[in-house]
């Protein structure tokens, strides 16, 4: 009888030890990372309420699973500098990468990118589509990379606009779209067994121009329901001349010489295309949301759901006529504010909202911290892990955005301060002026506010990697668009 009791006790102790060892092993199991970059997505999503009636059910669901940052901003309102800053941890004003046509690796030959750092720390690292900017993908950053595929185009173009500034429905199925195929690579990866922790980066190209997606997404937004952004007459009257020039002129290399000086807003008004353009942008947002849903459903059904961090963001904002401006390429709220959502099982409470100012560059040190990797020195960014644990934490870290050499914006929870390279200024009080309609910079009573905000301006303003006169049009190097998978051991 005594022997039986001893055997039962011994079995219980062994079971308890095995359970504790198993629990400890699970706790020490490395997080995976699902890193999702959406091109040209502004705050017109459900969780940010930038457009009433937008249909983004999958983004809405994702925000409820983790933390939605309502005041997140990009390092630069243009693809290449924004993504370079995020992925290297180096500010545009430090690297000198200010434009889309600058090969960033030439300026930062020794930079260890975010995916490279995960490779160095034992992760399986895979990239899909646009993570770095187009032609400047970095082969050293991936063990496996699936390049961008060619976008499906209409038979006759432009449909409603000019150049790549165009919109209209495609008579096509989702499966024919490049983003569908890109996301499928991510789904296939999540359906496989992986022995090592992974860092999977997936880029979704829409709503980048041109706004061509299947008809059904346009049907979600009948023209009769479209509401154009709120604007005021002569909004640019109190803007410094350099700011007006930026609003009306495309950067070098973005268009052909024939179209380079055409003003988007003037074209929209003269051709009565404002509602149609807004419809096209909204349609592309809902298409991107549908592609995101496919990827998130695959993660939900996989064995990696409980130990995978999700990072979701737009690389910069987008204007749709505010301040007589379209596209990104500006330092105002619409061009700099971005969607940013993080999900971290066991760390971030579901349905959390953070109203502190953060920058996309902060993703790099934060992922290092969350994944318990060695601290990376030299990053010009902030680990926002404390905010993930307490979104109400006192936070004195304004977000800085740079567009071109010497042009910067400082955004706090209340203020936006812009200083251009000629030292002219803009100041907006978001407590009373969320649309940034009244520039307060010339009012003497705000001198102390400007003095306080100017302390956050970068002290370094590196020369551009390639200095080009305004009279020259730079043609961007063509994309490398092979259909094959590039792998590296």
Q: Which descriptors apply to this entry?
A:
alpha/beta; Alkaline Phosphatase, subunit A; four-stranded antiparallel beta sheet; 15 helices; 17% strand; disordered C terminus
What does this structure look like?
This protein is of the alpha/beta class and 489 residues long. It has a single domain, classed as Alkaline Phosphatase, subunit A (3-Layer(aba) Sandwich), CATH 3.40.720.10. The protein has helices at 2-28, 57-65, 79-88, 92-95, 104-107, 114-120, 178-190, 215-219, 241-248, 264-270, 274-301, 333-336, 363-370, 385-389, 447-454; strands at residues 32-38, 67-73, 124-128, 144-146, 167-170, 198-204, 211-214, 308-314, 319-320, 326-327, 337-338, 340-343, 352-359, 399-402, 408-411, 415-419, 425-429, 486-487. Strands 1, 2, 3, 4, 6, 8, 11, 12, 13 and 18 form a 10-stranded mixed β-sheet that branches. A hairpin with a 5-residue loop joins strand 9 and strand 10. The chain starts with a helix and ends with a strand.
